[in-house]
Amino acid sequence: MNAPPKEISGIPALDAALPALRLLGPSGFIVAHNITFRGPEYYHSEYPKGWQREYESKSYAYFDPVLLWNIMNTGDRRWSDVKLPDLRGVLKAARAYNLNFGASFARSRKGKKSILTIARADREFTDEEMAFLSATFEQMMDNLESDMGGGLTPVELETLRCLRDGMTYNEAAELLKVSVPTVKARVEKIRSKLGARNAMQALAIALQRKLI
User: What is the average pLDDT across 76-90?
Assistant: First the structure.
């Protein structure tokens, strides 16, 4: 139920899963992928904006029993099955935003935690829905890991390194022994693959994801 401060856009891995998540979780959901002390590498929230503001302004993250369970464990759990104390009444406060029933899915890969939490107002998630959401989250993580790599080719990564080192297109072309139009075409493909608006944002995304 945490609401990290930043969303990273331009990653299409959620596209296939969004309709199912919205159908099963009409009150909203959060995906936080590869969480570090700096926050998640990828974050997407469809919880009500009012709840996100209240959650952040009242620092519920320090007291949220669901979030604490996700941090300490891996696996699948309905919120009602989380037995940690709710000292600040986070779950009670959430009901004002139709977050009455929920489920959490916590995974750890390569030492980094990823979390899906999803909510609805009317009933508990069934066993079949829990199994479906668990499998969907696993596939989503596979897709995110693939997409966050950007699908960049070795020559595209080499071109990005030239930009990282402050080279002009002419200098990069000379070093790579290709034409300037070829360098520009590579940069355009990189920009498209990473969902960046321009070359500088593409470079920033690549550095953030440690592609180069």
Answer: 97
Of 198, 201, 175, 174, which Cα lies nearest the Cα of 188? 198
**136-158: pLDDT as tens digits:** 999 888 777 766 666 778 888 89
Q: What are phi and psi of 151, to 5 degrees?
A: 65, 25
- Can you give the pLDDT at residue 121? 98
Q: Return mean pLDDT, the chain.
A: 88
Q: Report the alpha-carbon distance of residue 176 to residue 64 in Å, rounded.
A: 52
The more confident residue out of 79 and 10 is 79
- Alpha-carbon span 17 to 159, nearest angstrom: 33
Alpha helix (H) ranges present in the chain?
Answer: 18-24, 49-57, 65-72, 90-94, 127-148, 154-164, 169-176, 180-194, 199-208
Domains of the chain in sequence order:
12-148 (3.30.450.80), 154-208 (1.10.10.10)
Q: What are phi and psi of 118, to 5 degrees?
A: -145, 145
Gap between the Cα atoms of 95 and 41, Å rounded: 29
pLDDT (tens digit, 9 = 90+) per residue, 153-210?
888 889 999 999 999 999 999 999 888 989 999 999 888 888 788 899 889 888 877 7
